[in-house]
Amino acid sequence: NNCRTWFIADTVAPTLPEKIRKDDACLKFINKVRQLLEQNLAEESYTVDALSEDMGMSRTAFYNKMKKMTGQAPADYMLTFKMERAKRLLASQDYSIGEIATMLGFCDSRYFAKRFKEACGICPSKYIETIIGWCDMMRILHTLFYDRLFWHVFIVELAKSLNFDEMGRNE
Whole-angstrom distance between the N-terminal and C-terminal Cα of the chain? Predict the structure, then answer.
């Protein structure tokens, strides 16, 4: 569905703060963190300790660097990363909430739903309903726009064929 694709790409796509995007060393570091999080997304036991070890840093050094770069503690950043992915997966409507919970390393769908609501302010099922409603509204607006555009073009072309100018005067 084009609407869902647009919504996923433009609305819930993760963005990096400008200070990270402009600094090559920061960008390389964050991209490595994201790559490791992506590789271990379904691992319930993948913790800050494991991530800092995979980054080749002590937990304290990793915490300080993440906090300085992102403004978030590593555990909060990991949760934010998972919630960004959850939004994309929910918006795709290709998986059940339970499947998404498993894909993101949550022990069960209830715990996932609780964490999603805490992080996003809406439960996963309502998030899906919102997207469906939004896409339906966009489809209607798209139809109305193109119907109106079609009739506008039709009337202009008809007027031209009848030798009327833009003001409705016969030429």
Answer: 47
In tens, the pLDDT along 130-139 reads 877 777 666 6
pTM: 0.70
CB-CB contact of 78 with 37 (8 Å): yes
Going by the DSSP 8-state scheme, the letter that residue 164 receives in this structure is B
Q: With the CA atoms of 64, 68, 72 and 76 taken in that order, what torsion angle do they form, in degrees rounded to the nearest 10? A: -40
Burial class (CB in 10 A: 0-12, 13-18, 19+), 101: buried
Question: What are the b/e assignments for 115-138, b being 16+ CB within 10 Å?
Answer: bbeebbeeebeebbeebeeebeee
CA-based nearest residue to 54, from 70, 32, 75, 76: 32
Which tokens go with 162?
């009848």
